[in-house]
Amino acid sequence: MNRSPFAAVPPALRGPVLMLIATFLITGMQALVRLAGNEVPPFEVAFFRNLFGLVVVLPLLYRTGFGILKTKHLKLHAVRGALQTSTMLLYFTALTLNPLAQNIALSFTAPLFATVLAIIVLGERAGWRRWAALVVGFVGAWTVIRPGFEAVSVGALLVVLSSSGWAVTMIIIKYLGRTESSLTITVYMGLFMAPLSAIPAAFVWQWPDPVTFAMLVAIGCLGGLGQLAMAQAFKEADTTAVMPFDFLRLIWAAALGFVVFAEVPDVWTWIGGSLIFGATTYIAFREARLKRAPAAPQPATE
Q1: Alpha helices in the chain, H assignment, sequence order
Q2: Which residues make beta-bridge pairs with 147?
Q3: What does the alpha-carbon distance between residue 201 and residue 206 come to, in Å, rounded to a whole number?
Q4: Three-class secondary structure of residue 121 per DSSP
Q5: pLDDT averaged over the chain?
Q6: Cβ(52)–Cβ(208) below 8 Å
Q7: With 0-12 CB in 10 A as exposed, 13-18 as middle and 19+ as buried, what is 208?
Q8: What's the rounded Cα separation, in Å, for the pair 249 and 73?
Q9: 10 Å Cβ neighbour count for 109?
Q10: This prediction's pTM
Q11: Has residue 296 got a pLDDT over 70?
């Protein structure tokens, strides 16, 4: 993407601009998933999203050369593809069951789960500030779902389960990003997820009508471009510069939900979503600050 129109954008703005575009593309894709999911099974929608998402990035692959596929982490790409396929199937099913804005609000919990996993699995140290932010974030999730006050919907549970799985893929992507380009990561995602998602889709297959097929094509295009834009945004700028713009997904979801589905998010969705997003953003800022801080002087040894 270095020779794209974004090359003319000041470096400090490239990450935020790409993130803004990514949030709109991804939220628009999710609105179309809900529409198409009323016509064909969500598993089939997931297959077409991966298939046409791969088609979108193939011209970029041709332009940059197939050398971009060179990797030392093929098995890790495969694990990531299988896990992300599972989380996508869960989330796409949830999109057909829950209001769009509520799904987006709960999806913000993925970085919270990723932080917990980093502490438990990777042994990252966590002070009281990070633990306090995690508590606030999960209180936000509780506020959106409100167990005990309302019946917990299957859709909400699927989103939370999907977010926990996505947290694992976030750690994998973070590791791969040290040596792999955003295009390499995106292409391998399509190469693995398209055939893997075809398996469950085959058991519930229904041939789409022309209008639904057009929506499926658009879902793949928007998803592929959105994924690529988001990956590049995190490469162009620090997490702290682009993370706040992710909250736009909730804004777009509320607008699209109102216009397309006549949905009005309740106050609990806004409060809970804000708490979750605030917690995840604080954690991202805190991590970035600690990385930039100079190492503490080591005591002299004799």
Answers
A1: 11-37, 42-64, 74-95, 100-107, 110-120, 128-145, 154-176, 182-203, 210-236, 239-242, 248-261, 267-292
A2: 150
A3: 9
A4: coil
A5: 83
A6: no
A7: middle
A8: 31
A9: 26
A10: 0.83
A11: no
